[in-house]
Write a structure and sequence with these properties.
The protein is an alpha/beta fold. The protein has 4 domains: 18-82 and 148-176, no CATH class; 88-141 and 191-267 and 428-555, Vaccinia Virus protein VP39 (Rossmann fold); 271-404, no CATH class; 561-689, no CATH class. The chain contains 23 helices and 23 strands. Helix 15 (462-474) links the parallel strand 16 and strand 17.
């Protein structure tokens, strides 16, 4: 939709924010501690809150003057900026999208701070994994996100208690390459990101030494020091140029939203390289030798000897024994000294001779109770020699330990990611992209097959390709949300990228966003082509066995809402013409803006932007999940019949949302409450938006 006429009224005006829900919860629990001053500003009385929690403490709350914390000038303003109402709306760009009607993926065009504010409406607590690669605050990074300072923001700083000197300082750090400027840039985005994470959610943040230390402290504050998982070191090259120590690595900071929930509902292990191939070979030999374990062992040993020394399957060469449970390694049952002063010295009878087996000099690793348990299993989990003169060992089954924790240090050549991207979109279009293989590993490590992945510094779109590639490999249906600001491409400094966007793609404006979108299109098309070739090579039957691969994505642009801008104008500056124009604009139905209205209503109702909209009555009544959306008045009897029909369907209507500005009949609006009651809808199921 290319019509740029003013958007009707702000559809999110009467949608409570997550912060409002938190305030209401606090008000319900501690009404005495929540106060509202004469100007309508909320104040939490810390002393009354402390008294409610600990009435035996007459001193009330104690303020520590020298507490340990991360501080910088502008921190209060950065926190405040995270929770101001969203001042953008979404504009659907179906023409730039791929498989609009069928996809569950999103690509948002705009400032990620605005995007995160909007996403909170529909995706609060729903994201399993966030990966971001923010600006590293090097000399080559430019803060294109915040490089202006308005009078309105100056007023906000004054309200937050900043003095004139501090206001001037904060003005100067907008877009500056300083620690304070970078922290003020990251703080609100991380606060919003935390709200989007599930309880078992995880965030990975790429960074280098410029801001790694401040970022670690900032994340400790936002996510909690107790939820820190690891500071992963990624070695990207073998050597570098320096006069002192060559820096050939960067970091990936990892935090979870709640460590207990993450441990209860997460994989956190990756397959051991080559283990799946060894297990497959074992199954082949098992069938060939009719489950004769001696023959299988001999064949497995011969097979391992035939492998090249560098073959990853060779790492599992000890797994040559087998029983009815599977392939195993006769591990050291006695075990190394584990620090105990004494070890159990109980007897273990040999299953054939019945005599006590030879004991190791240091005693058994397992105590008698666990040993009895291991012997009681069928088959037993202890490996015996021919007679009692050998020391028994435990059975370590490859199928049970064919995965391992992710290492906090790994090597992956950064050049390979550049070559892979160049193969897709050409040379020089995007410097230093992330490695899709690494991101696929992180996604596989922490997500299930139907989880949601978010990247709000999309860059070249690597995260989207990693999600689609992993889905293609394991049959998953993970979905992604990417956000990328339309950063202008310099035609002199970035000639190849500029030519790619303007000449190859034919776009009038050369921005990084266009590279992001095209990379995802081409990566998706490549995966679909590979899948088609696989189907052709292995037979049409395969097509029905492999789940459909979602390589599409919906594109939305974040645009100004003219009505919200008018509403933000100070009253003493507004004219009568402003008010009349506003009233006329919001009260006049504009079919060209219908898509925009409907998709912003999805956010207002807390529905994903990928929710399918079903037309019931064109330009009047629509269905989104269990929400009926009404944008134009119609005979109440007709509307009642339609809603009754929808409620009788498999997924009945539970909510009725009305876009009030386009409905001029007051009697019709009054009749909707009676209609909702007649349909048995809940008291809060009728929503008037706008």
């Amino acid at each position: 939709m290319q019509n740029d006429a003013p958007m009707p009224a702000n559809t999110l005006l009467n949608t409570p924010s997550p912060a409002a829900h938190k305030l209401e919860a606090l008000r319900q629990l501690f009404p005495q501690a929540v106060e509202v001053d004469a100007d309508g500003r909320v104040r939490v009385n810390a002393a009354l809150l402390q008294l409610a929690l600990d009435p035996a403490n007459p001193a009330g709350i104690r303020v520590e003057e020298d507490g340990y914390e991360l501080r910088w000038v502008g921190k209060r303003e950065a926190y405040h900026s995270a929770f101001v109402p969203a001042q953008k709306i979404v504009k659907p760009l179906a023409g730039d999208s791929v498989h609009w009607a069928d996809t569950g993926n999103l690509l948002l065009k705009g400032d990620n701070l605005d995007a995160l504010r909007l996403l909170r409406q529909s995706y609060f607590g729903q994201v399993k994994l966030i990966y971001i690669d923010p600006p590293y605050n090097t000399q080559s990074d430019a803060f294109i996100y915040r490089d202006d300072f308005s009078a309105r923001q100056g007023e906000v700083l004054a309200q937050l208690g900043y003095g004139a000197d501090s206001v001037d300082y904060i003005k100067n750090i907008y877009g500056a390459r300083t620690h304070s400027g970078w922290l003020s840039f990251m703080y609100p985005r991380l606060l919003l990101a935390k709200d989007l994470l599930r309880d078992d959610g995880v965030i990975f943040i790429s960074i280098d030494d410029n801001e790694q230390a401040p970022l670690k402290l900032l994340c400790d504050e936002v996510f909690g020091e107790e939820n820190f998982v690891a500071n992963v070191v990624w070695q990207r090259s073998k050597k570098g140029d320096t006069k002192l120590i060559s820096t050939v690595h960067e970091y990936i900071l990892c935090y979870v939203n709640d460590k207990a929930a993450a441990l209860d509902n997460g994989q956190w292990r990756r397959p051991k390289e080559g283990a799946d191939a060894v297990l497959a070979q074992y199954e082949t030999l098992k069938a060939a030798h009719a489950n004769d374990h001696d023959a299988i062992r001999a064949a497995m040993m011969a097979w391992f000897r035939s492998l090249p020394a560098t073959d990853p399957r060779k790492a599992h060469k000890h797994y040559t024994w087998s029983d009815d449970r599977g392939l195993y390694f006769a591990d050291n049952f006695a075990g190394p000294d584990d620090g105990r002063a004494s070890r159990p010295r109980h007897d273990i009878p040999h299953p054939v001779t019945g005599l006590p087996c030879k004991k190791p000099s240091t005693g058994w690793r397992w105590d008698e109770e666990k040993t009895r348990w291991a012997l009681s299993q069928q088959p037993p989990r202890i490996h015996f020699g021919a007679d009692e003169t050998t020391i028994p060992t435990r059975k370590s089954y490859l199928a049970e330990i064919d995965s391992e924790p992710y290492s906090s240090v790994f090597y992956r050549d950064g050049r390979s990611a550049t070559l892979a991207l160049e193969a897709l979109i050409g040379k020089g279009c995007f410097p230093f992209p992330k490695n899709a293989d690494v991101l696929s590993e992180l996604i596989q490590l922490t997500t299930g097959r139907a989880d949601l992945v978010l990247d709000f510094f999309a860059g070249s779109g690597t995260t989207a390709e990693a999600v689609m590639r992993l889905n293609a490999e394991d049959g998953g249906n993970r979905q992604f949300i990417l956000v990328q600001i339309p950063q202008a491409i310099d035609p002199k400094k970035q000639k190849e990228a500029h030519a790619f966007v303007t000449e190859t793609l034919g776009k009038p404006e050369a921005t990084i966003f266009e590279i992001t979108a095209e990379r995802i299109r081409r990566a998706g098309a490549k995966l679909q082509a590979e899948r088609a070739a696989q189907v052709q090579a292995q037979g049409e039957l395969l097509a029905t066995e492999i789940p459909a691969l979602d390589t599409g994505f919906r594109v939305f642009e974040l645009v100004d809402d003219p009505d919200a801008l008018i509403l933000q104008k100070p009253l003493h500056e507004a004219t009568q013409d402003d008010l009349l124009a506003y009233q006329t604009r919001i009260a006049t139905p504009q079919p060209a803006q219908l898509d925009r209205v409907l998709h912003n209503l999805l956010l207002a109702e807390g529905l994903p932007l990928t929710t399918r909209l079903q037309t019931i009555v064109d330009e009047a009544l629509y269905l989104a999940a269990d929400v009926a959306i009404l944008v134009r008045s119609m005979p109440l009897t007709e509307l009642t019949d339609l809603l009754r029909g929808l409620r009788a369907a498999v997924q009945p209507v539970q909510h009725l949302t009305v876009y009030a500005p386009w409905i001029s009949d007051d009697n019709f609006l009054l009749g909707l409450k009676t209609l909702a009651e007649s349909l048995g809808l809940a008291d809060n199921a009728l929503h008037l938006r706008g």
